[in-house]
C-alpha cells in the first residue's frame, strides 16, 4: 500500500486506513517488553512446580537449593502462606457457596500439575533455574480427577470444603427470564418428540481445551525500593490488577503502581491476576530487592490459564417446514483446579447469545461448572460466545441435514429480519441493529456459493477421493463489555465502564489518556484518529498514553471487544467536554455569545461572520489565562467515564470451502470468505487485521489445537512441538469484506471486533468438514478435526453402512 | 529454557575430537548443528557434562564426488545440500527429503550427520539414507570404519555409533536418472513426520526395473518396504500397479502409537502415501 | 567461561560467556539488544530469528560460543542511515503486525527468504515463514507485506548485505 497525497480539503480521520503509530518501535526492536527491564540489584525468581496433578505435599527440602551458587532465598508455601491470601474470582456465579481458596503457592496439597510449590530467588535467571532442580520434595499422589463426567460422580472430591466437584448449575430459561412467552423449551421439545409435524435433533460433542498461546511469555518485574511498589507485568489488566492487589494482599492501593509496558498479545490469557505476580511481589518485599520472573514457554502452556473445555449437549426442535421452535443447551464446563478472575462466568456468557441470529420462541441453557485436577480455565478469545455459537451453528446444520434442507436456506427462514430490529432474543438481549441479509448476500457472492455447490455435486458424483464441503456460520455475538448495572445484576464484582482523559498542552499538542490498555490492538492509532477528528487537530499531534496506573489512573482495561465501543466512546465524550469548555473561552476571545459559536475542523467561528479562532489559539490563551472569561476554570483538560447502555452486537456471514482427502482424512481449507458487520469503522486496516487474527484462532480450534491430558493429569503436549499452532503454511489468505450497520448505542456507531473472527470461524470450518463427508454417513467429527479423526469417522460410517 | 551447565570443547581436528570424547566418557554429547540437541538441553531432558562441538573441524563439511560416489561431510548443513549440484544430479530423493525438514532457519544450521546420528524415528533423513544405500563413515578410538545404513540404525535414537565415535561422512552411490519422491504427512507444516515415504524408481522404457521404498516413523528406525519394492519391479508405473504394490507398505513395520497417530492409522497412511509417492516419482 | 569474539550489527564484541549461554541471551543480556526476543523453548516460534553470517537462524538454538568469530545481524541492525529496511517498511505499510512480538523474527526471516528467492509466490512465502509463529495476524498481512517488500526490492539490491557499523545500536 502506498500513501496517497493529502487531498486539499481535510478528510475525516475516522474511517481512514491509517498505518499504525505503534509500529515504529515494534519493527525496529526498540520495544519495551517486561522481560527487557533490568533494574539495579535485580534478582531473578524461578518457580518449582508440581509434576503431580493431585496429591499431598509430604515434604519439601530446600536446603540443597539454598546452597546453590547465586541463590539468595528459597520460599515454600509454608513460608508465604500467611501473606499470600487467595487469588481473586470476580464473578463466582454462585452466591450460595464460597469459592475454594486459590493459593498462589501450594501449602500442603496440589490440585494440578504445574501448581507452584516453591519459589527460588537467585542472582541470575540461570542460577535460579539450576536451583529449581535442587529442591527436593515428596508429593503423595491422590486419585486425579480428569474426566468431566467422572468428576461429577464425586468419587474423588478435589476441594473437600465444598464436598463436591460441582460448583454450580446455572440455568437460563427464556420463559422464566421473561424473554419469551408461551411454553418453555422443555415443554416444546417434549411435545415435538410426539408430533409427526415436528423434528427434534440432539447431539453431544466437545469443546476441546485450548491454550491462548500469546507469543510473549508472561513476565513480572517488581521494584519495592521506591516510594511506591512498582509492578511491571505482561498483563491485559494493569488497572484491575492494581485494585485486586489492594483487595487481596491488603497492599495500600495508593502505594501501588502497575505498568503494562509493551504486551505481546493476550487473547484473554493475560486477563488474569496470576500466582506469579503475587509471589514476585511477596519475595521482592521480603528481600527488599527488585525481582524479575519470566516464564518459559513450557511453563506458560502448563500454568497460564486455558480456555474452552466443555461437553455440550444441544437440542433443537423445529417444525418439518423448518421453523425453529426451541433450542436447549446442556453444557458441562471444566473449571480446572481453581477459579481465576472469571472462570465460572466464562461458560455462562454463552447463555444470552445462544439463540444467535435466530428467532427461537423458547430457549433454555443449563451450565454446570465442574472442578478437575487440570490447569484452571478462564477467558480465551470469545469467552463463552465461541462455545455457544459453535453449538447453535452446528445444530442448525444437523437439523438441515435431517430435514434435507440447504443449510443457508434454513438459516434465512429463521433469522431475524433487518426490519425486525431492535429485537429482543430468547436470551433476553436486545440487539439494537443488524442486517443479516446484506452480509449474507455479499458473502455468498464473494464465495461463489452456487458454483461451489455444483463442484461439490460433481465430486460426489465422481466419487472423487477429495470431497468438497461448504461450511456456513451466520453469527452474532455480544461484546463491548459491559453495562455496569447488568454486570451487577449478574453478580460480577466489577463495573464495565471505561475512562478517558484529554490534556491540552500549551503548544496545541494533545495527550489522550485511556484506561483501555492495548496489547496489539492499535489503540494509539485509533484513539489518535478519533481525537484528531473530534478536536480538529492533526493526527500527528495526538499522543495516546495508557498502561501505567501513574499516567492512566483509572480504567477497566482491554478484553471482551470493549475497547472501541466503550473506551473509544469515552474518548469521544471526553473530546466533547474539551470543546464545550473551549467554546466558552473562544466566545470570550471572539467577543461573541457562546450560542453563536460554531466549532468545525479545529476552528471556532462566530456564526454568520468570518471571525474565528483555532483550537490551538484557544488552548494557548487558556494556558496564559491573561484574557479569560470570569468564573471559568482556566483549563480545557477533561475526563470522562463512559458506561455503556447495552452490549454491541457485531454479526456476519462466514463461508468456508473445505476439501477433505477421504483417503487420509486430511482437511484443506481452500477458501474462506467472511463478511462482517462491525458497524462503523474507525480504522479499516486495524479492523481487518483483528478479523484475520480472529479467524486464524477460530480455524486453529477447528483443525489444529487441543491441550491433551493423560490419565494422570499430565499435560502431554506442553510445548510448541506438540501444541500445534498453525503457521503461515497451514492457513490460506482470507477474503474479507464488510457491511456497515451502525450500532445505535454509542456515538461512533461501532461494534467490537476483537473476538468476532474467532467466534464465527470455528463452526464454519467444522460444518464444512461435515458437509464434505456427510454423504458418507458421518454426522460429527470432534475438534480439532485432525486427519486421523476425520479418517476414523469415515471408516466408522462405512462400517455402519454409510449414509442412511 | 536455560541448559544446565556443561563444559565446552571445540576441537580443531577429528583426532582431538575423538580424544575429547574418550576423556569425557559417557557423559559427553556431540553438538553438530545443534537443532535437535539444543531444545533437549533447554528443556533439561539431557544434561551432559561436556559438549563437544564439531564445528571447528573443517574436513567434516562439504560435498564432493568420489568416483561413483557422492560424499557428504557429516557437518554439511541441509541448506548446502539443497543447493548442491551433485545432490541435485545424483541424489534427488535426498534433496526432496531435506527440503521437508523443519523450517528454513533450522535447515541453515541442522546437518545431515547430526540428524542421522540422532536417529529420531520421525526424522526425515533416515529413510532416504536407507533407500539410497548410504554408507556411514565412522571414526572412533579404534580407527575408521564404514557401516551400511541398514546396519547403522539400531533402534529408537540408537545407532552403530559407539561412545567416542564420530560420524564423519556419508557416502552415497549415485542414483543418476532415478525417479524419486519423498511424500511427507504431518499435522502442521512445521511438525515432524507422522509418516513419510521415500521412493526411488529406475524406469526403463516405461517399466520399473528397480524400486526402492523407505518408510519414516513406521518403527523405531527407518525401514525399507521390501514387499512394495518387489511388487513394483517389472511393472508399468500405473495407478493400479502403485496401489496394488502400496497395499504391502505396512508389512513388517512396527508403527508407534502416540498422541499424533495410532499405529493402525499410520499403517493406513503408509499404504496411501506409498501409492502416491510411487506415482509422483514415476511422474 | 569461554571467550568469544562476535560482530553484532556491525560492532565487534569480545566477551567471556558460559558455554551454556544461548546466543539470544548473549544478545539480550550482555549486549542489551532486547529487540530480539524469546518466544519458546523448542525452536518452534522463530521470534528469536537473527542472521548469522548472512543466514537466518533461531538464536535460541545456537550457543553463544558457536557464534564465535561470526557476524550477527539483528532487527536492530537492518535500518540504514535512518531509512527502514524495505521489509520493515512493508510490514508497517501493510499492517503486518499487531502485538509485535513475533515481528523481529518474522522480518529477519522474510529478509532471508527474499534473499534466496527475490520473487516468491504466495505459497513460497508461506512455506518460507513456516518456522515463525504469529498469534495475532493470521499471517494474511504478513504475506502481503512480504509480497510488497519483494516488489520494492526489485531489481538488483541484495536483500541482506552486512550491516554497516554506523547503524549499530538500534534502528532509527
Q: Which features does this protein show?
A:
heterotrimer; A: 804 residues; alpha+beta; Aldehyde Oxidoreductase, domain 3; Aldehyde Oxidoreductase, domain 4; 3 domains; seven-stranded mixed beta sheet; five-stranded mixed beta sheet; B: 283 residues; Uridine Diphospho-n-acetylenolpyruvylglucosamine Reductase, domain 2; Uridine Diphospho-n-acetylenolpyruvylglucosamine Reductase, domain 3; Enolase-like, domain 1; five-stranded antiparallel beta sheet; four-stranded antiparallel beta sheet; globular; FAD binding (chain B); Carbon-monoxide dehydrogenase medium subunit (chain B)
Biggest β-sheet strands, sense, barrel of chain B: 5 strands, antiparallel
* Structural class by secondary-structure content of chain B: alpha+beta
Query: In percent, how much strand structure appears in the residues of chain B?
Result: 25-35%
Strand content of chain C: 5-15%
- Tell me how many strands of chain C there are: 5
Helix content of chain C: 25-40%
Indicate the multimeric state: heterotrimer
Q: What's the rounded overall pLDDT mean of chain C?
A: 92
Strands in their spatial order, largest beta sheet of chain B: 4-5-10-6-7
CATH topology of the largest domain in chain C: Ubiquitin-like (UB roll)
Instruction: Report the CATH architecture of the largest domain in chain C.
Output: Roll
What is the CATH-assigned architecture of the largest domain in chain B? 2-Layer Sandwich
The CATH fourth-level homologous superfamily of the largest domain in chain C: Beta-grasp domain
Distance between the first and last residues' Cα of chain B: 46 Å
Largest interface: A-C, 58 and 60 residues
The shape of chain C, in one word, is globular
Architecture blueprint of SSEs:
The complex is a heterotrimer of chains A (804), B (283) and C (172).
Chain A: H1 23-26, E1 43-49, E2 55-61, H2 63-67, E3 71-76, H3 77-84, E4 109-110, E5 116-122, H4 125-132, E6 136-141, H5 148-152, E7 166-173, H6 185-193, E8 198-210, E9 219-223, E10 229-233, H7 238-249, E11 256-259, H8 275-287, E12 291-294, H9 297-303, E13 307-319, E14 324-336, H10 345-353, E15 363-371, H11 385-403, H12 407-414, E16 423-424, E17 430-431, H13 436-447, H14 449-461, E18 466-476, H15 484-489, E19 498-504, E20 510-514, H16 523-535, E21 542-545, H17 563-589, E22 597-600, E23 603-606, E24 612-614, H18 615-624, E25 638-642, E26 651-661, E27 667-677, H19 684-703, E28 735-739, H20 756-773, H21 787-799
Parallel strand pairs in A: 1-12, 10-11, 14-15, 20-21, 27-28
Antiparallel strand pairs in A: 1-5, 2-4, 2-6, 3-5, 7-15, 8-13, 9-10, 9-12, 13-14, 16-17, 18-26, 19-20, 19-25, 22-23, 23-24, 26-27
Helix pairs in contact in A: 10-11, 11-20, 16-17, 17-18, 19-20
Chain B: E1 7-9, H1 14-24, E2 28-31, H2 37-42, E3 50-53, E4 63-66, E5 69-73, H3 78-82, H4 85-90, H5 92-98, H6 104-109, H7 112-118, H8 126-131, E6 135-140, E7 143-148, H9 149-152, E8 153-155, E9 158-159, E10 166-173, E11 179-185, E12 195-204, E13 207-216, E14 223-224, H10 226-232, H11 239-246, H12 263-282
Parallel strand pairs in B: 1-3, 2-3
Antiparallel strand pairs in B: 4-5, 5-10, 6-7, 6-10, 8-9, 11-12, 12-13, 13-14
Helix pairs in contact in B: 10-11, 11-12
Chain C: E1 2-8, E2 11-17, H1 23-30, E3 49-52, E4 55-58, E5 71-73, H2 86-93, H3 103-116, H4 122-128, H5 140-153
Parallel strand pairs in C: 1-5
Antiparallel strand pairs in C: 1-2, 3-4, 3-5
Amino acid at each position: 500500500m502506498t500513501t496517497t497525497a493529502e487531498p486539499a480539503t481535510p478528510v475525516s480521520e475516522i474511517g481512514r486506513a491509517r498505518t499504525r503509530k505503534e509500529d515504529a518501535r515494534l519493527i525496529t526492536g526498540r520495544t519495551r517488553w517486561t522481560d527487557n527491564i533490568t533494574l539495579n540489584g535485580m534478582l531473578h525468581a524461578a518457580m518449582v512446580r508440581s509434576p503431580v496433578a493431585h496429591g499431598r505435599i509430604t515434604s519439601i527440602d530446600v536446603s540443597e537449593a539454598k546452597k546453590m551458587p547465586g541463590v539468595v532465598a528459597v520460599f515454600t508455601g509454608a513460608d508465604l502462606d500467611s501473606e499470600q491470601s487467595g487469588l481473586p474470582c470476580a464473578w463466582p456465579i454462585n452466591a450460595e457457596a464460597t469459592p475454594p481458596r486459590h493459593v498462589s503457592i501450594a501449602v500442603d496439597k496440589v490440585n494440578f500439575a504445574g501448581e507452584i510449590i516453591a519459589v527460588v530467588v537467585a542472582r541470575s535467571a540461570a542460577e535460579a533455574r539450576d536451583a529449581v532442580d535442587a529442591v527436593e520434595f515428596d508429593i503423595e499422589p491422590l486419585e486425579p480427577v480428569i474426566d468431566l463426567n467422572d468428576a461429577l460422580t464425586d468419587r474423588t472430591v478435589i476441594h473437600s470444603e465444598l464436598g463436591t466437584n460441582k460448583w454450580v448449575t446455572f440455568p437460563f430459561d427464556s420463559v422464566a427470564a421473561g424473554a419469551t412467552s408461551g411454553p418453555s423449551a422443555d415443554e416444546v421439545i417434549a411435545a415435538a418428540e410426539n408430533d409427526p409435524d415436528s423434528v427434534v435433533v440432539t447431539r453431544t460433542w466437545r469443546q476441546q481445551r485450548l491454550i491462548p498461546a500469546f507469543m510473549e511469555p508472561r513476565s513480572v518485574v517488581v521494584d519495592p525500593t521506591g516510594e511506591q511498589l512498582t509492578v511491571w507485568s505482561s498483563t491485559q489488566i494493569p488497572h484491575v490488577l492494581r485494585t485486586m492487589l489492594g483487595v487481596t494482599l491488603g497492599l495500600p492501593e495508593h502505594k501501588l503502581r502497575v505498568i503494562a509496558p509493551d504486551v505481546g498479545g493476550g487473547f484473554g490469557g493475560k486477563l488474569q491476576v496470576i500466582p506469579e505476580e503475587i509471589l514476585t511481589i511477596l519475595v521482592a518485599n521480603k528481600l527488599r530487592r527488585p525481582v524479575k520472573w519470566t516464564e518459559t514457554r513450557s511453563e506458560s502452556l502448563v500454568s497460564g490459564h486455558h480456555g474452552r473445555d466443555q461437553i455440550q449437549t444441544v437440542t433443537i426442535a423445529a417444525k418439518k417446514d423448518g421453523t425453529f421452535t426451541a433450542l436447549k443447551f446442556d453444557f458441562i464446563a471444566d473449571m480446572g483446579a481453581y477459579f481465576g478472575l472469571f472462570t465460572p462466568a466464562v461458560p455462562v456468557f454463552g447463555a444470552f447469545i445462544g439463540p444467535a441470529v435466530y428467532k427461537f420462541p423458547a430457549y433454555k441453557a443449563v451450565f454446570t461448572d465442574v472442578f478437575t485436577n487440570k490447569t484452571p480455565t478462564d477467558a480465551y478469545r470469545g469467552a463463552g460466545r465461541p462455545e455457544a455459537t459453535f453449538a447453535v451453528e452446528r445444530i442448525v446444520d444437523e437439523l438441515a441435514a435431517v430435514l434435507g434442507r440447504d443449510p443457508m436456506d434454513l438459516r434465512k427462514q429463521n433469522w431475524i429480519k433487518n426490519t425486525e430490529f431492535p429485537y429482543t432474543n430468547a436470551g433476553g438481549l436486545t440487539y439494537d441493529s443488524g442486517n443479516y441479509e446484506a452480509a449474507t448476500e455479499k458473502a455468498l457472492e464473494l464465495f461463489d456459493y452456487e458454483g461451489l455447490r455444483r463442484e461439490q455435486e460433481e465430486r460426489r458424483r465422481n466419487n472423487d477421493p477429495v470431497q468438497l464441503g461448504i461450511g456456513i456460520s451466520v453469527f452474532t455475538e455480544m461484546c463491548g463489555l459491559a453495562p455496569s448495572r447488568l454486570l451487577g445484576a449478574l453478580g460480577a464484582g466489577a463495573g464495565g465502564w471505561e475512562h478517558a482523559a484529554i490534556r491540552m498542552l500549551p503548544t496545541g499538542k494533545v495527550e489522550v489518556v485511556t484506561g483501555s490498555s492495548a496489547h496489539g490492538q492499535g489503540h494509539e492509532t485509533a484513539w489518535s484518529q478519533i481525537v484528531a477528528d473530534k478536536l480538529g487537530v492533526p493526527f500527528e499531534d495526538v499522543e495516546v498514553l495508557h498502561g501505567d496506573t501513574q499516567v492512566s489512573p483509572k480504567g477497566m482495561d482491554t478484553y471482551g471487544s470493549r475497547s472501541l465501543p466503550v473506551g473509544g466512546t469515552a474518548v469521544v465524550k471526553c473530546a466533547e467536554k474539551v470543546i464545550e469548555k473551549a467554546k466558552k473561552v473562544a466566545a470570550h476571545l471572539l467577543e461573541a455569545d457562546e450560542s453563536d459559536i460554531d466549532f468545525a475542523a479545529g476552528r471556532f467561528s462566530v456564526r454568520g461572520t468570518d471571525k474565528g479562532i483555532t483550537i490551538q489559539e484557544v488552548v494557548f490563551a487558556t494556558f496564559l489565562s491573561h484574557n479569560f472569561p470570569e468564573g471559568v476554570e482556566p483549563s480545557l483538560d477533561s475526563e470522562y467515564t463512559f458506561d455503556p447502555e447495552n452490549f454491541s452486537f457485531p454479526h456476519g456471514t462466514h463461508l468456508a470451502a473445505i476439501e477433505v482427502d477421504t483417503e487420509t482424512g486430511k482437511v484443506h481449507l481452500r477458501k474462506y470468505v467472511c463478511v462482517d458487520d462491525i458497524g462503523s469503522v474507525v480504522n479499516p486496516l486495524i479492523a481487518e487485521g483483528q478479523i484475520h487474527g480472529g479467524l486464524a484462532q477460530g480455524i486453529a480450534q477447528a483443525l489444529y489445537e487441543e491441550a491433551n491430558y493423560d490419565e494422570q493429569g499430565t499435560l502431554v503436549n506442553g510445548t510448541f512441538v506438540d501444541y500445534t499452532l498453525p503457521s503461515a503454511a497451514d492457513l490460506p489468505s482470507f477474503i474479507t469484506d464488510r457491511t456497515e450497520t451502525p450500532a445505535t448505542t454509542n456515538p461512533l456507531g461501532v461494534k467490537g471486533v476483537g473476538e468476532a473472527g474467532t467466534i464465527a470461524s470455528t463452526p464454519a470450518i467444522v460444518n464444512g468438514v461435515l458437509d464434505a463427508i456427510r454423504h458418507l454417513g458421518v454426522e460429527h467429527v470432534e475438534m480439532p478435526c485432525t486427519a486421523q479423526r476425520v479418517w476414523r469417522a469415515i471408516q466408522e460410517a462405512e462400517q455402519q453402512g454409510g449414509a442412511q | 529454557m536455560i541448559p544446565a551447565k556443561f563444559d565446552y570443547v571445540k576441537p580443531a581436528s577429528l583426532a582431538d575430537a575423538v580424544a575429547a570424547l574418550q576423556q569425557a566418557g559417557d557423559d559427553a554429547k556431540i553438538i553438530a548443528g545443534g537443532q535437535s540437541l539444543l531444545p533437549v538441553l533447554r528443556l533439561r531432558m539431557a544434561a551432559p557434562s561436556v559438549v563437544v562441538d564439531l564445528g571447528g573441524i573443517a574436513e567434516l563439511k562439504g560435498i564432493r564426488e568420489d568416483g561413483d560416489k557422492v560424499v557428504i561431510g557429516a557437518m554439511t548443513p541441509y541448506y548446502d545440500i539443497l543447493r548442491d549440484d551433485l545432490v541435485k544430479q545424483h541424489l534427488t530423493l535426498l534433496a526432496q527429503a531435506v527440503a521437508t525438514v523443519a523450517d528454513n532457519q533450522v535447515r541453515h544450521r541442522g546437518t545431515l550427520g547430526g540428524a542421522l546420528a540422532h536417529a529420531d524415528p520421525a526424522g526425515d533423513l533416515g529413510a532416504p539414507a536407507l533407500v539410497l544405500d548410504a554408507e556411514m563413515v565412522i571414526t572412533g578410538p579404534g580407527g575408521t570404519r564404514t557401516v551400511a545404513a541398514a546396519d547403522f540404525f539400531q533402534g529408537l535414537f540408537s545407532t552403530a555409533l559407539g561412545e567416542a565415535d564420530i560420524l564423519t561422512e556419508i557416502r552415497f552411490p549415485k542414483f543418476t536418472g532415478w525417479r524419486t519422491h519423498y511424500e511427507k504427512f504431518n499435522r502442521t507444516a512445521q511438525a515432524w513426520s507422522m509418516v513419510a515415504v521415500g521412493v526411488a524408481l529406475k524406469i526403463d522404457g516405461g517399466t520399473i526395473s528397480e524400486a526402492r521404498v523407505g518408510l519414516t516413523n513406521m518403527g523405531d528406525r527407518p525401514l525399507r518396504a521390501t514387499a512394495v519394492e518387489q511388487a513394483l519391479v517389472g511393472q508399468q508405473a500405473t495407478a493400479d500397479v502403485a496401489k496394488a504394490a502400496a497395499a504391502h507398505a505396512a508389512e513388517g513395520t512396527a508403527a508407534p502409537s502416540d498422541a499424533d497417530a495410532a499405529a493402525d492409522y499410520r499403517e493406513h497412511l503408509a499404504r496411501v502415501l506409498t501409492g502416491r509417492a510411487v506415482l509422483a516419482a514415476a511422474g | 567461561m569461554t571467550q568469544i569474539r562476535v560482530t553484532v550489527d556491525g560492532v565487534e564484541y569480545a566477551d567471556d560467556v558460559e558455554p551454556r549461554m544461548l546466543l539470544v541471551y548473549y544478545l539480550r543480556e550482555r549486549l542489551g539488544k532486547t529487540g530480539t526476543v524469546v518466544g519458546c523453548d523448542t525452536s518452534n516460534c522463530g521470534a528469536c530469528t537473527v542472521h548469522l553470517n548472512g543466514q537466518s537462524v533461531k538464536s535460541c538454538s545456537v550457543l553463544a560460543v558457536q557464534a564465535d568469530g561470526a557476524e550477527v545481524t539483528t532487527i536492530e541492525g537492518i535500518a540504514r542511515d535512518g531509512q527502514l529496511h524495505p521489509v520493515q517498511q512493508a510490514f508497517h505499510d501493510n499492517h503486518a503486525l499487531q502485538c509485535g512480538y513475533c515481528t523481529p523474527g518474522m522480518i529477519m526471516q522474510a529478509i532471508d527468504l527474499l534473499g534466496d528467492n527475490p520473487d516468491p509466490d504466495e505459497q513460497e512465502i508461506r512455506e518460507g515463514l513456516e518456522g515463525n509463529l504469529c498469534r495475532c495476524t493470521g499471517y494474511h498481512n504478513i504475506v502481503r507485506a512480504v509480497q510488497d517488500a519483494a516488489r520494492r526490492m526489485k531489481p538488483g539490491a541484495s536483500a541482506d548485505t552486512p550491516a554497516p557499523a554506523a547503524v549499530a545500536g538500534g534502528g532509527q
